[in-house]
Amino acid sequence: MLEPLRPLLILPEVVDPTKWKRGELWFPDPDRQYVLRLFSSAAELFSINTRSVTPEDMTSARDFFLNPKFRGKIASHDPTVTGTGSAFAAVMYVQLGEDFLRQLFVDQKTAISRDERQLTDWLLRGTYPIVFGADDAQIESMRKEGMPVEAVYSISRLFPARARRQRSDRGVQSRTPIPMPPSCS
Questions:
Q1: Could you tell me what percent of the chain has a pLDDT over 70?
Q2: How far apart are CA 64 and CA 56, in angstroms?
């Protein structure tokens, strides 16, 4: 059970609707009082070096990621630890299945790193022109400077999943005790 959150918000700058991007506090719950969304953003799915990867290469996920042309040319943040790599692997697993994931990481000889900076460097140099988990802020900065890199946010032509969504929702747990069923007493 959640307590209404709106009455607990007392700072004028917090309740002032002009301070919120949507022009109002963002309560996504049906009663518009229990859960406050602080932000919602999209993150890139992967990044490419545009000298080596062209839009024509991106036809379908299987054809793109499993293209022999890219064998040994894909790098990923480590999918065995919590973070970017495991999140991407989970999306691929759900969308395309275990066999696809095995082919991507084993058959395609995907390089693994836990260092975001190394992944970004590999991408920029073209060592690995397809990278899952490069530093998106650095990619955008380098792209603006004319470097041959691009973050890919939506690949609907590859598979139905879109960019990873990130949200921050907050609520306050009720202090009212939850009655126990008689069988648990």
A1: 80
A2: 9
- Contact 16/10 with Cβ under 8 angstroms? no
Flag whether 107 is in a domain: yes
For residue 51, the enclosing domain spans 43-164
Residue 12 structure tokens: 């004028």
Residue 6 sits in the same domain as residue 18? yes
**pLDDT digit string, tens, across residues 156-185:** 545 544 444 455 555 666 666 556 666 665
Model's pTM, two decimal places? Answer: 0.67
Inside any domain, residue 147 = yes
Largest interatomic CA distance in the chain: 68
Domain count, the chain: 2
Q: Are residues 52 and 114 in the same domain?
A: yes
Which tokens hold the place of 147? Answer: 């470097």
- Residue 80 makes CB contacts below 8 A (sequence gap 6+) with 86
CATH number of the domain that 52 lies in? Answer: 3.40.190.10
Query: Is residue 132 a contact partner of residue 92, using CB atoms and an 8 Å limit?
Result: no
Q: What is the mean pLDDT of the chain?
A: 83
